[in-house]
Specification:
mainly alpha, two-stranded antiparallel sheet, 16 helices, two-stranded antiparallel ribbon, about 5% strand
Amino acid sequence: MKNLKLIGFLMILVSSLMFIQCTSEPIAGPQGQAGIDGTDGIDGVDGVDGVDGTASCIACHSESHRTPIINSFAKSSHSDQTIMYTGQDLANYTNGVSASCTKCHTSEGYINYIEGKPAVKSEMPSGVSCTTCHSKHSTFDFENDGHDYALRTMEAVTLDTDDSYTIDYGNASNSCLVCHQPRSKAPVDDGTGMYLQANSRFYPHYGGQSTVLEGIQGSYIEVDGAVELPAIGTSAHRTGASCTSCHMGTSTDAEKGLHTFKVSLDSCTDCHGATPPTEVAGLADDMAVLKAKLIALGLLDEAGNTPKQTEKVPFKQVQALWNYVTVYKDGSHGVHNPTYTKALITNALKALEDN
């Protein structure tokens, strides 16, 4: 009996020693020689201490800078939720018409276009906002590369209606050209001198400002006494100004300039001084006369729509209609390109002198 107790005691002692051995730190064995040091890395560039290191960022990325921009943009047509068809209204609009509308009428569509993705319809699209046009800087070396304003694109724009023609303003105004270009081209004579105008939207769309400014895609009407169109790209607003210099200039009027995109008096007087220019004088009267003639011919209605025709009409009448709606839809009352727009309307009136 005593032997059994002794054996039991010895077994407990051995088990305890084994447990202690297993839970104790291992005894380190002999170590080998240390390896050779690696190659030193390249020294980093010293930063700038204090606020000065982020001064260039804070200049724009601060509430004091952003708030006026946000307030200004809220007064622009780009932020008008009715015009831009935001939300479900836009979903219904684009689903009922074409996904291509989303390129300019929705934030998602514009971004897809800039990134080279196909146009798609969205169940609940977003309207145009800050992040539609702005994303992130392509480079932070503003001193050498220029300030890109974090715009998604500042590249030259090839026209949707003519892939052989590219417009380049060389600055942030190129971003405007993406949408402010025509969707349709001027009519073409089939050789018969007659034309069937069967399009209820017979105009360059609402964004033809770029081609009017460039002085292209109007219809030159060959009639007696026709005024020659000025050389392409010679408008003073094309050669000596830009979209941003006129539509985003500084202003003492909170309702205009900056991100309202509405031309301020300050933007005009910076170049023209206190004396108003006279280049567009008489254009409004000519437009009114031309509109009355087109209405009488049934090619235009009082609201400015272009009713579909069921029979062919003289091609010159259709050219006159095209020139009228081109100048009207441009929305600048001829200011974008006075010489060009006056020539288009003068020739249109001459084409309808017998009507």
